Amino acid sequence: MNEVSPMKPEAERPSLSKIVGRVAHAIDKIISPGDVAELRRLRPDIVSAAFYKLVAGNIAPEQDWPIDGPARDAREHRWAVILQAMAQLRGLHNTKQGLGESLARADYSELRLVRLLRAQDDTLEHEVRTCAHFLAAKAAACNQTDIANLVLSEGREYAESVRRHIARSYYNKTHSKEDKS
123: domain range? Predict the structure, then answer.
């Protein structure tokens, strides 16, 4: 069964940015430390109570998820990648600092950036995890909506636009850093 729940009118649906902000707040202040730890260890192919608690309360009702079947599984898989990264970046959500700029400020290598932006499927999961771990180790805040957009756009017509946005932000920041040297 691949039915989709009745769609909310566009005006009533929150933006991805609002959903990510709400989830970041829940990870930072509401859910238990044990659930945060479980999310940090989360793998998209393993059932997790912490994942489903967060999805049920903050994401699924707002995104009009398919009721069941492969489409639902694929949506949950993508959100598992996003939530794992967000849990890794607990306390580091900043809507004013794009992912590309944050990576440049934290001295993320160009080679790693290119791998992240070219990655697909399981490789994208790995590169997002690596990126989040790097930013967390540097305590570098970023707009986690950019991570969600990167993961959710994979295979869609707007994926290239999302990747170019991240690249522009990264290279604009690295260029301005070089000018100051």
Answer: 14-180
The angle formed by the CA atoms of residues 90, 96 and 100, to the nearest 5 degrees, is 80
Specify if 5 maps to a domain.
no
Contacts of 58 (CB under 8 A, 6+ apart): 19, 22, 23, 26
Domains identified in the chain, total number: 1
Write the DSSP assignment of 86-114 as a string of letters. Answer: HHHTTT-B-TTS-HHHHHHHTT--HHHHH
Assess if residue 8 is contained within a domain: no
Separation CA 10–CA 66 (nearest Å): 17
Amino acid letter for position 50 = A
Work out the angle at residue 68's Cα, subtended by the Cα atoms of residues 8 and 6, and round it to the nearest 5 degrees. Answer: 15
Give pTM, 2 decimals: 0.88
**Tell me: the pLDDT tens digits for 107-149?**
999 999 999 999 999 999 999 999 999 999 999 999 999 999 9
| Amino acid in position 122 | D
The answer to whether residues 72 and 123 touch, using CB atoms and an 8 Å cutoff, is no
29 found inside a domain: yes
Q: How far apart are CA 85 and CA 93, in angstroms?
A: 11
